[in-house]
Design a protein that fits this description.
The chain is α/β, with parallel strands linked by helices and about 375 residues long. About 35% of the residues lie in helices and about 20% in strands. It folds into 2 domains: about 10-200 and about 315-380, NAD(P)-binding Rossmann-like Domain (Rossmann fold, 3-Layer(aba) Sandwich), CATH 3.40.50.720; about 205-315, Dihydrodipicolinate Reductase, domain 2. The protein contains 13 helices and 11 strands. The strands form 2 sheets. A 7-stranded parallel beta sheet has the order 3-2-1-4-5-6-11, sandwiched between helices. A 4-stranded mixed beta sheet has the order 8-7-9-10. A hairpin with a 5-residue loop joins strand 9 and strand 10. The chain is globular and about 65 Å long. The relative contact order is 0.15.
Length: about 375
């Protein structure tokens, strides 16, 4: 299928959670609104996906539950506490008024007991009729930015997306796209989705993946792969509750383990650890990751990799979300249903099908040009 241009079209998105990640994303729409480069936009992986550019994305509805955000214009809410993401585009549009979402398990008692600058303060406003609100907004898709551990809430919003007949982008480690039962619900509704758990542009997970791939491709034995993450934003604070951390740790380790599974290489016991380790308010939105990888090469000679990665956490995910949004829009136009294999493997830590880095990228490049790969054609037949 040939490449087309949609210069007069918009991708209308609704967003759950006006936290740090959304703050970076919303600022990014202003920062890149005048980008005219046809093939490359610095800081963005793909300038053009199916004829859509970052400037084609429009936020039409935002939902949150914090009293400092609900009832405020989006352009004000994204800078409200407890957000601490870097401000790189302060003059953002006012945007839609933030509506009251449904709390469910989205807010832990721990986060309500934290100091106001680091925790959540639940609004007493009445939650909206979610499905009707989504329909009224005209959104093409719903982006899930809930706090880690929001299992019930994520499932509630995923079902709301289905009932409103819109696509779903699951940016958190609650398993929706990678859960066959949930994927089947989207297939039955003839809708695409991408998930689960956003893999940042150049973050700890993608770095762990390519280092693990490199080791295996060069004939090394990986005895131990450790990835420790620390940060000072509300995401790290929320994950101080161990029960909410479990899915995140599993998701981050899936990225590394997948490189063994794809090659049929056993994962030795206690040989893999990846996950958040602590919350340091001083760091704010700066995430720091430490890697220790212990390898054996020719003649069992030992090789050790020690590395440190320091990134602005929320901005690091925003560019990937901008791509994922556009993949969903193009997939919906092409009639592709269910969890998108290539884009999920490229943009998420726990996709329904793990892929090697290069294979996932090829799938995304094909969809960006509206070409139907065999895996995409298989999803067309489900419609």
């Amino acid at each position: 299928m040939s490449h087309t241009t949609n210069s007069n079209s918009e991708i209308k998105i609704a967003v759950i959670g006006a936290g740090n990640c959304f703050s970076a994303l919303y600022q990014g729409f202003t920062y890149y609104k005048d980008s005219t480069e046809s093939d490359n936009i610095p800081g963005v992986m793909f300038a053009d996906i199916g004829g859509y550019r970052p400037s084609d994305i429009k936020v039409v509805a935002v939902y949150d539950v914090d009293e400092r955000k609900v009832g405020k214009p989006t352009g004000e809410a994204i800078f409200a506490k407890p957000n601490c993401a870097r401000v790189f585009a302060p003059d953002v549009p006012a945007g839609p008024i933030v509506q009251m979402g449904h709390v469910l398990d989205g807010v832990s008692s721990y986060m309500q007991e934290q100091p106001a600058d680091f925790g959540f303060r639940v609004s007493d406003a009445k939650p909206v009729d979610m499905v009707q609100s989504l329909k009224d907004s005209g959104a093409d898709l719903l982006v899930n930015y809930l706090p880690v551990g929001s299992q019930q809430a994520s499932e509630f919003y995923a079902q709301a997306a289905i009932d409103a007949n819109i696509a779903f982008l699951n940016c958190i480690p609650v398993f929706i796209a990678s859960n066959p039962k949930w994927e089947q619900k989207f297939i039955d509704a003839k809708l695409p989705l991408i998930g689960d758990d956003m893999r940042s542009q150049l973050g700890a997970s993608v770095l762990s993946q390519v280092l693990q791939e490199l080791a295996f491709d060069r004939g090394m034995v990986v005895d131990f792969h450790q990835q420790l993450n620390i940060g000072g934003n509300t995401d790290f604070n929320n994950m101080m509750v161990q029960s909410r951390l479990a899915s995140k740790k599993e998701s981050k380790e899936n990225v590394i383990r997948a490189q063994n599974d794809l090659r049929g290489i056993a994962v030795p016991e206690h040989s893999l650890f990846a996950g958040p380790s602590t919350f340091l308010p001083y760091l704010k939105d700066n995430k720091v990751a430490y890697f220790n990888i212990r390898l054996r090469g020719f003649g069992d000679a030992s090789v050790t990799i020690d590395a440190k990665l320091s990134v602005q956490d929320s901005e690091n995910s925003a560019g990937v979300v901008i791509d994922a949004i556009r993949y969903l829009k193009v997939a919906k136009e092409l009639g592709v249903v269910g969890a998108l294999r290539g884009p999920s493997a490229w943009t998420q830590k726990t996709p329904p099908e793990q892929m090697m880095y290069a294979d996932a990228k090829l799938e995304c490049e094909a969809l960006a040009k509206r070409r139907l790969t065999p895996s995409v054609k298989r999803q067309l037949t489900k419609a």
